[in-house]
Amino acid sequence: MAVEYGGLKSNFKAQGWTPLGALRMGCIFFASVPILILQAGMIKFSRKRWWPVAAFWHRTMCRILGLEIRVLGAIKHPGPILYASNHVSWLDIIILGGLLENASFIAKSEMAQWGFLGTMCGLHKTVFVNRTRRTDAKNQADRLTDRIKDGDSLILFPEGTSTDGGRVVPFKSSLFSVAERADEASDHRLQIQPLTLAFTEMNGIPLVRSQRPLVAWLGDVELFDHLRQFLALARTVVTIEYHKPITFQEAGCRKTLATYCEQEVRGGLERAARLEMRMGRRAERASSATEEAGSEPDSGRLQAHLDT
Known about the structure:
The protein is α/β, with parallel strands linked by helices. It has one domain: Glycerol-3-phosphate (1)-acyltransferase (3-Layer(aba) Sandwich). The protein has helices at residues 8-14, 19-45, 51-65, 91-97, 115-123, 137-149, 177-185, 223-231, 248-251, 254-279, 281-292, 299-307, and strands at residues 67-72, 81-85, 103-108, 127-129, 153-156, 191-202, 205-206, 236-242. Strands 1, 2, 3, 4, 5, 6, 7 and 8 form an eight-stranded mixed β-sheet that branches. Strand 6 and strand 7 form a beta hairpin. Helix 2 (19-45) packs antiparallel against helix 3 (51-65). The chain is globular, with a radius of gyration of 19 Å. The two termini are 37 Å apart.
């Protein structure tokens, strides 16, 4: 963790609840109980229809938390997809969980033991992977194969850690071994699609470096302390950009695949920062005007406008 974020844990613990935060916490509890009970039943009795209820919970949490999601690009492949995204915070789970249809997260096996958070991962059919025990490799490959054969997609965070959201750390090619296994399971129909997740605005103004700890889960900050701070924010804007998908065969190897995804995600993060800082509300108004005209936003035209 960077030196500038060294005092986060003590600072977050010293700050108490705000009225808005307390209200939102109550809403989270009362909204979650019936939905999660229903989701537990869906996981047990209807394995192929689990996602709509899970997505409804994620989207409900986004609304309660004041998260506004803006999307650039599109998902064009109808088959199974492995999404490769940068990782900023526990908020990524809530955002992507309600956005990517029939997609489950790939997470380290230790998360299954993280109490309530581990339970929540299980309710989203997270695939837990042990990266140290090679004896589990076959069982893990079989689980991934079964999910792909069922038509599900997967979400991978190839950085292997979270960042402050202002940069992308090198993608670990070893983590793309799941792409190799999943590609074989799908008879080489699997598409790997990079996507960029960027927190771009907070309380109506562009997000600046000093505010990043409010959205990024950094260092040894406790989850509950970070949640309490985030609940006090009025509104946070998240920009999601889908990049051009690629197949494992096109990449040729895990290293090339990791490099391609990393470059695409990094470029998207830079565009998101420029878009918010230089265009601000103009981008939102341009997108709304395009939708009212009955056509999809032209990302190329928007980027050309940005670069002028």
